Amino acid sequence: MHPVNHEFVNILTEIQLVFTFGRDTPKMASSQWLSIATLSVMLCGGVHTFMPFKFYQSQISHVDITEMAILRKTAEVCRDLAQKEGRPFSLTIDSRLSAYAVQAACSSGSDPSLRSSNKFEDAIVEIYKSNWRVDIGSHLKDPEYHFDDETFVEGRNLITQGRTIVKKSVTLESFSSARETLGKICHTLQDFYSHSNWIELKNQAPFSTLIKPDVPFTNLADKNTPTCTDCIDDDCKNNILPEILRAKKLTSGYFGVFFFSGKKPTGKFLKILNTSIKN
């Protein structure tokens, strides 16, 4: 699994997803049921469908990553519950999952009126709308929401504090608020992998430090350390300095909006929206 998707699934797992589709709640330790039921969060309330577009069909968007992770984790939780209760579960968990298929598999044996996937789909949309709005709303130029400008500590704070807010919101049965926050923090988490050089450093596993507030970051490139060379026209591939790669230094790009260039230290990479800019 791609690190972005894997790490998002880890966040959902950390929150301890528990959900049953209209069936009697199985007997479990009270501590398990007091932990967050993010799948319940996703299935409460409704929204109007909204599909953010792609510039190219081959692109993988925040929507794609978020929706697939939710479907995969929902299916895994339902499978595990079915195994504990001795019930069959036949759904194949892969990249072809749909809300309808997951809802049907998780609702097997329950009242047919509870098998509609509409609320499930609406809840997924609400989460990924919140995710997508980070790129088009008031947080567009806030570097910590995207791990831009080497704001690794600040970005992690958003993720870990947001997870706490999600848990509290569910405890208070403020499910819409929980979905809103979950979408935001998952956007920031996903941006870490696309805005930093984590992949260029040949890392194959997710960066677990992002969800562990007490674990210090190590090997960060500071703001005075040059990390890249100029792009050649619009081609910015392989522009990270070899010494940064050899030392496994973690860095991220700086950001500007249209004609307003962002500020960056010398030797750093600046990107203005979808246009590559020489640094």
From TrEMBL:
* Domain called VWA7 N-terminal: residue spans: 99-268
Checking InterPro entries in the record gives: VWA7, VWA7_N
Its protein name is VWA7 N-terminal domain-containing protein
